Amino acid sequence: MQKTLSPVLRAKALDNRLPDPILGDRYAEQAMRRLDPDYDRRRFGTSQIGLAAVVRAKAHDDWTRSFLADRPDAVVLHLGCGLDARVYRIDPPASVDWYDLDYPATIELRRQFLPPREHYSLIGSSVTDLTWLDRIPRGRPVLMVAEGLVPYLTETEVRRLLTSVVDAFPSGQIQFDTVSVWAWRTSKWDPTLRSYGTQFHCGFDDPATLADWHPRLEYVDEAPMNDSPVLMAKAPANIRRMYRLLNLLPGMKRSSRIVRFRFNA
Ligand SMILES: C[S@@+](CC[C@H](N)C(=O)[O-])C[C@H]1O[C@@H](n2cnc3c(N)ncnc32)[C@H](O)[C@@H]1O
User: Fold this and answer.
1) pLDDT tens across 82-118, in order?
2) What are the angstrom distances between the C-alpha of 6 and each of 10, 29, 63, 87?
3) Measuring CA to CA, which residue among 202, 133, 199, 193 is closest to residue 163?
4) For 11, 163, 242, 251, which has the most beta carbons within 10 A of its beta carbon?
5) Mapping DSSP to helix (H, G, I), strand (E, B) and coil, where does residue 116 land?
6) Which fold has domain 48-263?
7) Any idea what DSSP says for residue 255?
8) Which residues line ligand 1 (CB under 6 A)?
9) What average pLDDT does range 177-181 have in this prediction?
């Protein structure tokens, strides 16, 4: 499962080589060099960058920034963080306490590759072992960000996670990306996922209905993904054409979605 973090990290690192990057994440390049000592010697075409992953990260960053601008006293739960440098990109004020969580082996890599900072903690745990929540200060607004994580959990695990976070905090925002039922069901044949020895474990055709899981949870909106203007503006012509064609297929445009929920007391 942790193998899935390398392609997304590489996408963010390669974006930083572009003259006008989407994320501009120098930490991704630093971490990528540590993960793959030959990284600088390898040649990658623009079509290999994996812009969808970068666009997804940018959408999560934009939502994170706007939530923290309104709630500078928040606690951030960045779940399935991998080697993503979101905390450095966002650079929250000292009033925010930020927690990055992933499996212990990934957290160990983070310790080696990325610098420590104030008001920032690492938690090495499976996200599904909810005892990690006991380590988080309560009574403050929470922001839960899960980028590229939810499809790897079962629906039961996602439901327990979301409802436990809502129960634990007075108010907050929950944002994550998810895939459609079709994308989930066919993931066992996806050559990329197969090469990492993994597959998705859940999918939702209408993620807004997840708000029904808790009376305090409210669906807010969705960020563009496969038809994102940033993706269309930055992708090379062949990739743009591929997305235009795929987006014509029923269900393809919404095969992966980035969604946001809120809750209050
Ligand atoms: C596709 S990678 C995404 C990494 C990072 N969020 C990003 O976008 O760059 C998925 C990450 O989720 C983590 N992950 C998957 N299942 C997990 C679980 N049950 N508990 C903790 N982390 C998990 C993996 O270790 C991996 O780092």
Assistant:
1) 999 999 999 999 999 999 999 999 999 999 999 999 9
2) 6, 12, 24, 18
3) 133
4) 11
5) coil
6) Rossmann fold (3.40.50)
7) S
8) 1-2, 4-5, 8-9, 80-82, 84, 102-103, 106, 126-128, 147-149, 152
9) 96
